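Reading a protein record of the kind used here takes only a little practice. The record below shows the convention in full.

——
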Amino acid sequence: QVQLVESGGGLVQAGDSLRLSCAASGRTFSNYVMGWFRRAPGKEREFVATITWSGRSTYYTDSVMGRFTISRDNTKNTVYLQMNSLKPEDTAVYFCAATDSTTGWRYHYEYDYWGQGTQVTVSS
């Protein structure tokens, strides 16, 4: 089992920045690819970003490319999502997730463990 706890959400204005954190406990953190997903009101859960085991590779959905940065610190068992130039359409509950799958990292069903989510609200 892997337990994930997100933090860092809040209410900000358009153009502001936030950094989300996700602290993991349980099994060896570096064994898992970590992802961030989000669910906006009335919409399906959406892939945001993912980072591989050592952090060498990262992948983003097009809408956040150049604005968001995913990173991880395996010594602290933590994954981060730095969000800059936030837009109202980024408003959502953000979830971190862990998978030991070697493929399909953009798909929520590939992830085995999920946090409870943290709310991000961006006002215009």
